[in-house]
Design a protein that fits this description.
By secondary structure, this protein is of the alpha/beta class. It has helices spanning 26-37, 53-59, 71-77, 90-101, 110-117, 120-124, 128-131, 138-144, 154-167, 177-180, 184-187, 213-222, 224-243, and strands at residues 16-19, 64-67, 82-87, 170-173.
Length: 245
């Protein structure tokens, strides 16, 4: 991983981009960023989109862009900005998204509707086309392509996602976020000593041992590239820790 300082260009105020992958504790993390940098320095959260010129221009007023932005948009619109992100074990991330989505109202996206109307086994048995946006290898698609690209070449996207991880000035893991944030102050002095608020855990979510093995198997089938990316992150962090005096 690139451990250099935050970048940026003279054309705008953006110096760094937090690539917020859904259900990776990104909301709690963004709150910590606002406390460290000041709320006005951090952009409002925003959903995945094909970013319009007006959306891009509005984000240029913030030092830290923090939202569900895909790497293709980040590199196209903010080429001088540093990158950082949080990843999560894909099985846990997908289960977390499902139980979170069941509580969402006023959103009629096909995957959200499916989560509300199907139990966990039925939901994860659905075709990948229905659950594509937030379940199917979402981490690789966001870090290596664009989440709206339904024709994504996953082999190529995985290589690019691994490169994104290497380019990031900081990478955290949801499962180890508190300890991983101890490294954040090395890159952003404003975040020295910062800790996230308690994570936003969905109520009444079953623990992984209580989930049917068939559901876990189906999640694995739909997230083989994400699993490989997560293993890459773990290896990269172990390698960095071994080099640290």
């Amino acid at each position: 991983m690139n451990m250099g300082g935050a970048g940026g260009s003279e054309a705008d105020q953006v110096s760094a981009i937090f690539l917020h992958i859904p259900k990776t504790a990104g909301t709690s993390f963004r709150d910590a960023l606002s406390r460290g940098f000041g709320d006005g320095a951090v952009s409002p959260a925003f959903p995945a989109s094909l970013m319009s010129p007006s959306e891009v221009q509005a984000l240029r007023h913030h030092r830290i862009v923090a939202g569900h932005i895909s790497i293709t948009d980040a590199r196209r619109h903010f080429p001088g900005a540093s990158l950082f992100t949080i990843v999560r074990d894909p099985i846990q991330r997908c289960l977390s998204w499902y139980y979170f989505a069941r509580r969402i109202t006023g959103n009629n996206s096909p995957d959200v509707v499916a989560a509300r109307t199907h139990d966990v086994e039925a939901f994860f048995a659905l075709d990948d086309g229905i659950t594509f946006r937030n379940i199917f290898n979402r981490q690789v698609r966001q870090l290596g392509d664009h989440v709206f690209n339904e024709e994504v070449d996953l082999d190529a996207a995985l290589i690019r996602a691994q490169q994104t991880i290497e380019d990031c000035v900081w990478v955290g893991r949801q499962e180890h976020l508190v300890s991983d944030m101890e490294r954040l102050g090395d890159v952003f002095p404003e975040m020295d000593g910062a800790l996230p608020h308690p994570l936003n855990v969905t109520p009444n979510r079953p623990a992984l041992p209580d989930i049917s093995p068939s559901v876990v198997e189906r999640i694995v089938e739909s997230n083989r590239y994400d699993l490989e990316l997560y293993a890459h992150v773990e290896t990269a962090l172990r390698s960095r820790q071994a080099r640290t005096p």
